[in-house]
Structure formats: C-alpha cells, structure tokens
Request: fold
Amino acid sequence: MGKVSKNNRHKALSLSKGFTIVELLVVIVVIGILAAITIVSYTGISQRATDSSVISDLDNTAKKLKLHAIANNDDYPANLTSVDGGAIKFSPGNDTNYKYLPNNYTNPKTFRIEIKNGNSKYHITESTAPTPDITCPSGFIVVPGSTTYGTSDFCVMKYEAKNVGGIATSQASGTPWVNITRATAIAKSNSSCNGCHMVTEPEWLTIAQNVATVSDNWSGGAVGNGSIYIGHTDSSPGSVIEAANPNDGYSGTGQNSGNQKRTLKLSNDEIIWDLSGNAAEWSMATIKGTDAPGLATQTHFIYDMFPVEWNNPLLLMGGLADNVSPKYAIPIAQNWNGATGIGAVYTNKAFSYYGNQDLHFRRGGAFNGSADPNFVTQGVFHIRIDPDVNGASSADNGGFRVAK
Reply:
C-alpha cells in the first residue's frame, strides 16, 4: 500500500475539522433572535385574539342589556342570568372574569361591565364603546365616569392629601394636609404627578353620586334607608385624624358602629376615605355672589350660618355646576335632606353680601360638624362657599384631594 502524501494528510485533517467557537456563537445568536421574534409575534397575536374576544363579549352584552331596558321601563337587570331571552354567555376565559354593575338609581340609568382576562382589561357602559381600563398612580383609585356629569373614568386619591416632604401624597398614615390656601392646594395638586390636578366639581359630584347609590354606604343597608355614613364629624377627637388602621373604617373615631364610618365603597368595589368629614376639601369651583340670585335673598340662618337643604326648592344645584342637581342625578333622592347624610350648603353671609367677590367651594365638611341629629350639616354633597380673603387665606381645617 502506498504512502499518503503530506499534502493529502493536511487536506484530510482540514476536512474533518468542526465549527469554531465564533461560528457556534453566531448560530446561537441567530437562533435566539429568531426565537424571540417568534415568541413576540405569538404573544402579540395571542393578546390581540384575547382583546378581540373581550371586546366582542362586551359589545354583544351591551346590546342585549339595552334591548332588555327598552322592554322593562328602562331598568337594567339585577344580574346577567335574568336578561330577556335567558342568561348571557361569555367566551371561555371571559366567563369567570367579568363584573356587571347595573345602576337603576341614577338619571340616566346606567350599567357597567368589566372584563379582565390576563392583560386584557376593558369595560363598557350604556353610553360608551369597549374601552381599556385606566391605570392610576400609587395611592389612587379608579372612579367610574358619570353620564350625568359628563365624566369618563378618572383616578382620585384614596385618602385626603398628606404632606410628605412637600409632596401631596395619598396614604393612610399621617394627618391630612390642612390649613392650606386654595392657591397652594392647586399648585401642590398639579405637581403631585404628571397630569394631576385638584378635584373638580364634576369629579366630586361623580364620586358622590356613585357612593350614594351603593347600598353598603347606607346605615339601613339599602339606598335611601337610614343615612349615608358621614365620617369623622362630631369633634371627638377635636381635630383631623389619620387612618391608623386602613382595614377599619372607624379608625381614630373611638367608635366601631354608627354613622361616623370614614370609608365609602364605590360601585366598582374601590374604597375611598373621608369623602365626608375629617378635613373639608377645596374644590376647583369658583363663583360670585351674583352667580346665584336665588340664594342671594336667603334669610334662613342657623348658628349664624346659611343652610340650603336638599329638599329646599333652591336645590343644591350640583354644586352650582351646570345646574345639574344631585336631586336630579338620583331621582329617588326627592325626600333626602340633611338628616340623610347628604350635607347642606353653607356660607357665612347671604350671597348678596358678597356681590362680585370670588367665592370658593370646600366639599364634604370637616370634623367639627353640627351635633344636631336632626340637621346633619356634613355629607358627601356638602358645600361650604366663602370668599378667599385677598386670594390668600387658608381655610381652617381645610384640606384637598388630587385627581388625574
């Protein structure tokens, strides 16, 4: 057998050599990139499919609910098992992740359906298309919008604003930021987060309308039965208080039952603290004495104060905003009054005294409310209207709340 030449041996060895490390790394990187693209594409396709399923279920259910209302005195069913034609069925994955919230107390009557399926979080109402849920800053809660007051879903502080290093913060610990001028409260609200602002009148009324139509907020266990909880309003203790125990709605009041409960539940099961009582809260509303001629001639004073109760012909006028009264917004409220826990309108003087002076709103009432059980001055619709002297006076015990 002949000898193999040196060149042939070299060629054979060259042909049998494997991939270099660099070549292997390049192949691994390429495979990784292709895999990532495939996963991202699949995830996107899967998410879009889930979104489409959720949106379709919401849209179809809303149509059935509206047809049901047409045939049933504009009322929406109490649940989705009693809709005309039988129970509503959702697609797999959506059937255990929905929340149906009818409200036949408001004007107009409303419903809200929420579906949360993985990353798909949408809701629909009687007046909106399927809409993605909003995301709130830490310490804020979602408030469902109101057709009555023209609001979409928005975020609001769960607690009254606290002063944390000069930043308006929503947290349980610490007492509310009080004795603050309206101008400063507005500035601190604006700087609290991107897009934040002090609560507006439509926003406050949206929250008040919502909690007033939730049975859990009434001492009698049903809307209109008893009174709405009015929070810390009896001057015991004689100051604003913190929420020392966030799991106890009576925290700091020295009570464990009764109308001093500080927490109220929204229709979406979110909890808000001290909407009534503790610290009266600045609102963005500003009017002049001449803006409300019906109030200018009022001569009914109690404790040198001027109340206009819910059932007074002058109405609360929805905080004098757009002439939409809470009485109109909640038709069954025709006979509600101060003793029902909804509050009253107060000003130190008849409006005619102030003339063209700017008058500002403080909402909800403070810890030092009336002790007269027949005339509860504080409540979720309570308004105190006074001038801000020289534009710079701070309100005694007055605080604020931020929305976004």
